[in-house]
Amino acid sequence: MLSMRHTPPIIQFNKILSSLAKANHFPTAISLFHQLQTNGITPDLFTLTILMNCCCNMGRMTLAFSVFSKILRMDFQPNTVTLNTLLKGLCLSFNIHKALRFHDTLLAHGFQFNQVTYATLINGLCKTGHTALAIQVLRKIPQYGIVPNDFMYSGIIDSLCKDTLVSHAFHFYSEMLSKGISPDVITYNTLIYGLCLVGQLKEAIDVLNHMMFKNITPNVHTYSTLIDGLCKDRNIKDAKSVLAIITKDGVKPNVVTYNTLIDGYYLVNQVDKAKCTFNKMAQRGVAPNVRSYNIMINGLCKSKLVDKALNLFEEMCRKNLVPDTVTYNTLIDGLCKSRRIYCALELLEKMQDRGQPANIFTYNSLMDALLKNQQLEKALMLFSQMKERDINPDIYTYNILIDGLCKSGRLIDARDIFQDLPVRGYRLDVRTYTIMINGLCKEGLLEEALALLSKMEDNGCLPNAVTFEIIIRALFEKDENDMAEKVLREMVSRGLLSG
Fold first, then answer.
1. Confidence (pTM)
2. CA–CA distance, 43 with 51 (Å, rounded to integer)
3. Are 93 and 59 spatial neighbours (Cβ–Cβ below 8 Å)?
4. Do 360 and 450 fall into the same domain?
5. Do 492 and 415 belong together in one domain?
6. DSSP character for 408?
7. Which terminus of the chain, N or C, has less C-beta within 10 A?
8. What is the domain range of residue 447?
9. Along the chain (499 residues), what's the average pLDDT of each consecutive run of 10 residues?
């Protein structure tokens, strides 16, 4: 087109750029736009809006705003599509407050918005956890002459359900109905999800029946959500019944449906049924994904069937499914708990060679296993490696390390780390204090242990039954019977031991 004697009109180029943008080939569209400019072809508003959309979808908001400036410089009147594109880009980039300010500025300058604008803003606010602000926007829009729609209400209902504010979600559902706005399958799916999340399974089934009464056909997501809720409630029998119903109704279960059911079987320790369902899904034309294998591997590891888990790991690799960090972490943890530490360390190397980054959970599992196997030096090397790779230790990491140092007779080192943690901004938990108290008791430093017991309470961390038991046992061993009985009475008065 560029090499033709009579250059086609800009509308023809726009068709190509638009097709590329719709197919998510954003860099190609931008590159071709630059070729247009190099050839002296003047873009129109539609061309620049396509370019801006590409920039927004790539998260390049500075460039998107420079295109917007170009629109204004060329005396084009930005339309609602142009403005919505920018607002959506800001929401996608999680610049939600900037999106609101941009909206207010444009509104003050007399620009007009439509339902899409406010649906975009409400969706962006809900997705970033600003549900209260989303509700404020919903309440304001009638004064701009905009009628709220099902998409706006569904976004707010979804956000409230995810925050377990299910009764509030139902308030907005009722409001929808009173305004004559018909909920769709997405709204009902969200309500069912919210009810399942708070364990109200009977009410979730009532909503399913209600939507069917309203001639709204449940989809595979509806049923998968319900199966997930039933499985988490350990009601596998009813979950299986739901699966049978959907198959009978001609709704094809998807990989999420099967993953949920497999996870449920492992939850009630029905390993054989989990394996049977895993095999069935492939037979029924539903290919297991990485999550399917992760659920299976996790379940097998927890059932101490680590070799079977390793076989599945090899199988997924043969099927060209790329194991993720969760896969490796699950196997490493399973190997560590089975005392196969060298296999776990080999898997760590394999994981890093294949470009899967190890994280805090990987190192915590390995360090815990090494220290339980009295391999302190190797654990300390791993701790150093972890910090070299910019993986910040968490309080659980330090609990493992302090416990290992105490048990290896290096109380001074353990105490130094323990005392340094609050200085470095770590909040000590009951386990940290209990580990340190146990270390002090083992070395016969009872006075220091009792002082630490008192200090932990002053710092707002209440001792648990294990903390008291360690102190009481140490006191009895030192024939400090009166003091032991006093601490025991304290333990009973706190309800940590039945009197």
1. 0.78
2. 10
3. yes
4. no
5. yes
6. T
7. C
8. 410-499
9. 84 92 92 88 91 90 90 87 88 86 87 88 89 92 90 93 94 93 93 94 92 90 93 90 84 92 93 92 90 95 94 93 94 94 93 90 95 92 91 94 93 93 92 94 91 88 90 88 86 73
